[in-house]
Amino acid sequence: MRRYLSLLAIALFVVSAASIVADEAVLIDFTNLKADIVPQKDPATDKDVMTQNRATMMDFSTLAGASYTADQKKAMRTSLALANWDVVLASSSRTTANTRLSMTAAVPVKGTDGKETGTVLGVRIHFPVESFNSWARVSPPFEIPAFEPKATIGDDGAITKKEASTSDDAVNARMSRFEGSYDANARIYNALGVVKNVGIIKTVAVTVKGLNFPHGLSVVLKDNDNVEKTMFMGYLNFDGWKTLKWDNPAYITEVRNRELRLYPLYPRATPFIKFDSFLLTRDADHEGGDFVTYIQNVKLLYDKAVLEPVMDIDDESVWGIIQTREDQRKKAEAGRFGNRQVLRYLETLKKENKTSFTTEVDTTK
C-alpha cells in the first residue's frame, strides 16, 4: 500500500511539472519567407527578381473552373513571400491615397559587420492625417491552411505532392507543410503559420522594431473552430528591436486549481492555432500620415491539448472527416483568392507601363 501511494505521488508530481513547463513554438518567422523562386523581369532594373517563397507556395488553380486560360491559372499561384502580404485599412481610412501608400516589403537586416543576417516583414501604413481613430490589418495573401500535405516545389512554382514519409523521425513525418518542422534538440516547433495540438495559450511574443510611433500592435490568431483571438501586445513608442509579450491572465499554473475534463478524441484530436493577421491601431490624438515598422517573428508558449496517444487504428484514413473539412475550406479560399488574382492579372494586362510619349509634338512649327 505504501509503495502504491509513493508511485501515485510521483505520477502526480510528473503531471504537475509537465503542466508548468509549456511547449514552445515559433508560430511564424518572417526570415523564412524571403522570395527565392519564380523569377520575373523588373522593368526598373531590367533584371530578374524572385517573386515567390518556395516553402509556402500554393496553387489555387487546381480548383478553378475550365473557363480560365493557362496564363490566368498561373496567376493563381502564390506564396507567403513578404511582398505578397496585404494591408487593409479601416473603411473610414480607405482613400485612394492611403491605400496606395500602404504596403509590405521584404526588408534585409544587417549585422554589425555590415553583412545581411536575414529578411523581416516591413510594413508601411499611411493613416489619415485627420484627428480620428483608425486601424490597419496586415494579413497573408491567403488563409494559411492547417492540413496542407507536404510537397516538392519547383523553381517555377509547380507543386508536386510528396509520398508519405517513412522516416524514423515520427514527429516531423506526420506534420503538414505549414506546420514546418520540429527541432528535437531545442524542443521547439518552427512553424510556417500553424501549430497543432494547442490547448491553453500561456504567452504570445512578437519581435518588432519600433520607431517611436505611439501606435498599438495586436496579434490575431485563429483556432480550429475558426474563432479569432486578438491579443494586444503593446505600443511601438520605442526605438530599436524589442520583444513584446502578452501573458494570458486566465492561465492557471497550479493543476489542482484547474477545471479537469475529458475531451473527445477523433475528429477533435487536432486542435490548432494559426496566424491570422497583425492589427495596428492609431489613436485620434496621435499624429497621422506615414507609419513604418518591422516584424521578425511571432512565438507561442502553450499547453498541449492532449497527450500523444499510441493509436492502433488510423481514424483519419478510415473516415476522412478532417480532410473533408480542410478540402471545403480550401475550395472556399480558392474561390475568394483565385478570382481576385485573375482580376489583378487582367488589370496588369490593361495597365500602361510607358512613362513618356513615343514622339513629342514640335510646337515651334
Could you write a compact summary of the structure shown?
This protein has 6 helices and 20 strands. With 365 residues, the protein is an alpha+beta fold. Mean pLDDT is 83; it is low at 1-20.
Question: Can you characterise this structure?
Answer:
- The structure is a single chain.
- By secondary structure, the chain is α+β, with helices and mostly antiparallel strands.
- It has one domain (19-37, 82-146, 163-350): Sandwich (Jelly Rolls), CATH 2.60.120.
- 19% of the residues lie in helices and 37% in strands.
- It has helices spanning 2-20, 70-74, 96-100, 170-173, 315-319, 321-350; strands at 23-29, 37-42, 47-52, 58-59, 77-78, 86-89, 103-110, 116-127, 134-139, 151-153, 159-161, 181-183, 188-190, 194-196, 198-211, 216-223, 228-235, 239-247, 272-282, 289-304.
- The strands form five sheets. Strands 1, 7, 8, 12, 13, 15, 18 and 20 form an eight-stranded mixed sheet that branches. Strands 6, 9, 14, 16, 17 and 19 form a six-stranded antiparallel sheet that branches. The chain has a two-stranded antiparallel sheet with strand order 2-3.
- The N and C termini lie far apart (114 Å).
- The model is unreliable at 1-20 (pLDDT under 50).
